[in-house]
Amino acid sequence: MTENKKKVAAYWASSCGGCDVALLGLHEKIVDLLENAEIVFWPAATDFKYDDLKGYPDDEIDITFFNGGIRTDENEEIANLLRKKSKTLVAYGSCAAQGGIPGLANMSSREELLETVYTKTPTTHNPEGLIPSEVSTRDGVELRLPGLQERVRSLEQAVDVDFFIPGCPPPPNLTQKFLGALLEGELPEKGSVFAGERTVCDECDREWKGKSISEVRRPHEVEIDPDVCLLDQGIICMGPATRSGCGAGCPEVNVPCKGCFGPPAKVDDQGTEMLNSLASILQVGEEGKGLEEERNILSGLRDPIGSFYTYSLPSSIFGGRVDDGGKDE
Amino acid sequence: MGSKPRVGVFVCHCGENIAGSVDVAKLAEEAVGLEDVVFATDYEYMCSDPGQNKIVEAVDEEGLNGVVVAACSPSMHEETFRNVVEDSGLNRYRCEIANIREQCSWVHRNGGTSPTSKALKIIKGAVQKVKRNIPLEPVEMDHSDKCLVIGGGVSGIQAALDVAEAGNEVILVEKEPTIGGHMAQLSETFPTLDCSQCILTPKMVQVSRHPDIELMTYSEVREVSGFVGNYRVTIEKKPTYVDPDACNLCGDCEDVCPVEVSDEFDEGLSTRKAIHIPFSQAVPSSYTLDEDACLGLNPLCCTECSDACDADAVNYDESSQFVEEEVGAIVVATGYDLYPKEEMGEYGAGSYQDVVDGLEFERMLSATGPTGGEVRRPSDGEVPNNVVFIQCSGSRDPENHNPYCSKICCMYTAKHAKLYKESVPDGNAYVFYIDIRAGGKEYEEFIQEVQEEERVLYLKGKVSKLEEVDGSLRVTGVDQTIGEKVEIDADLVVLAQSIIPSDRAEEVSKQLNLNLGPNGFYKEAHPKLRPVESIGGGVFFAGAGQAPKDIPDSVSQGSGAAAKAMDLLAKPTLSQDPQVVEIDEERCSGCGLCLGQCPYGALELNSRGIAEVNEILCEGCGTCVSGCPSNSLSLKNQTDEQVNEVIKAYVGD
Predict the structure, then answer these.
(1) CATH class of A2-101+152-184
(2) Contact flag A199-B628 (C-beta cutoff 8 Å)
(3) Which of A34, A209, B295, B330 is deepest in the core (most CB within 10 A)?
């Protein structure tokens, strides 16, 4: 029986850990899974070491669920190792699939990040201004930390990926469906995104109105009408530019879609696509006054990158802040 | 392309226009080296017959399935070459134009960028595009055979008659109780001095009797939806409170009506009753009860007219009716108004009774006017012996009024002077003018004739001041010819007020999605080559709503608009450029973002909640394509892949 069992691995790279919890969120289904599968590596849940992994023959693991983006040298090393040891590598969750929220750090340089985190935040007490380095010596012992890379990357930007299961975290039913397909030997074409083929709007029950924005408002500034499209209410909802498959749970509870499922099938850059669309629906009146009115409307948009690239900055066309030779304000 | 691409490249010299800076022979030679190009040649004028034949021959002999013509802008000859390609047996969209004239040879005449190597890149891009083009057939659809004419002035009347004569049903909508427009108010017309009503009323009668014209007076278009060939129009027919079929024009109602108000047909120079007929030859010939003036349409207040009417034609219970019609073409003939003399601060801002505008003077001259055709001034009814005519009042004055020339004022002022002299032979007429613009058949001769009349003095110069002094109007101006100040004490001053678009123009332009020019006149599709068409198609312009014009021009344009409408209505089906938007039904989620973006209203959500394009309405502008957040929309033969490949061809991989 053991021989027929699928060998499954899971790993947590640069992410919050929610994706590992999401795997556990399968609840009793995990038990069903374990009838047909065997866990061979899952640092968050089982006691395996990197050496165990290194000891496996190549392609030993049937499937690896890799969550988190590539931020450190360690992330990259294990990604490469898991790639080598796995027949199928799945980018699991938004961070692995698109870079995720940690990817917003790509708006700052590595040095700016370290400086901010270790010396500038109000809660930091670091009078000597110490910043961790990769190699340090204490009591004659050399200590090493994994190197912090210049930018966050999605898993695909580091190694070859077979499938993508997006979501922050992926909803259990998607994971379950994927596992079902895996066990049945009915996995889709390599490179597929295991989610819907349309956009979140397809699954959202809100009533669509004029889709014309005269004012950009943040959710806490509005008494949200639970039945009307959030965009119609001036709230930036990424639903139209986000792949379906989540069931539109966020808009259902008055929370605008933040885009965790990544761009729809035919879109390369989720953020520019949404920006482009938004620009087309700003309600500007008289000819000639357009630019001024547009500015007024958009002044309500406090954090464009954070709004449009919440999950996808590393995998966007520009990937993060583009070096401007120090001219950036 | 299905089978392997076999593209032919045809390089045009355009005389020296292209060959002057592009090495055309070398270009043709190098074009053969491009991927999928199997044939290339150059010729002096590709658009000439022999040039076109080269394409037909090559398609046949070389088995081409794609044609790139490297020549001038596609806006010049794309149509020509696509027709040639179609004649040669290929789908017309197997042809692309590489613009190596406007975008290359003309702008690189003086060196810098090498025009020949740039031209090759432009050709390379066109090759990349044409081999990915899919064959398309025109989009066909049915249309309504009816024509709506908005405005019953002379140009609208002409358009309605022409279209109806061609056998199409016409709905003529006029906001006033009668058709005829301003022309019905005029006394005589320049330069022939025909009686205006005498030449107009036969046409009005023709309209009323024409079996194919449905005349809707006292009516206004309230809503228009749909598109070329298939407009749905809602027209409000306001209540006249008089049954036109029963009314026998006895006039008893008018005699007993206790309410007197200013008569708009006489430009306020006389009064009329609340129940009235604008003038005796009005069409339809029936009374109208002006509900704003009436004591209240309430039998408790007054029933005089109803009581007096032996024909039982008066009905106080009438109310607005909203009529829905489907029409294929629309002629917009909403006409003009005069720039209010109240705007003319320098000429008393309308406060002097004896300063009148052109239309008021027409009524004073008219045999059917308040004075029976005798020129008598409004203030005291005296015959004025000194009349000053001021041309360009409100026109050609960009600082204070309208910047444009109103075109007809030189002529009608001359006519006014002449008619005044006929009425008051001993009177003096003074005409202040900037220039005399008399471009028109027999117009200059007419001006000269008037200028030679005795006691008609043309003064080149502007009037700087107009004030009331001792009961007469002191006009101060300059005679530029002698360079001296002139002061005239006038009994009457006639202002040749600027022509402005009718107050309906703005609303109609919104209803029909028409563009207005900077001065509020309708903007035609092309100022020279498409002067009666709107940009969107299906709507045509007639008369002074498009620009100030005189009667012959208005009539001509009415006929022109009618011809365009007939051309459209005569087609068994309408066809449209098929390079329209296509929707990926597997991807579209019906978010609806595209709907509001489409300037033509061509998109809607279908019953499955997915965007659907109306191919007849779609103009292929691509706004929705770039606005679609899921890239579910694409433009046929202008796909993202094509655009990307063209860019790659330009900049290298």
Answers:
(1) alpha beta
(2) no
(3) B330
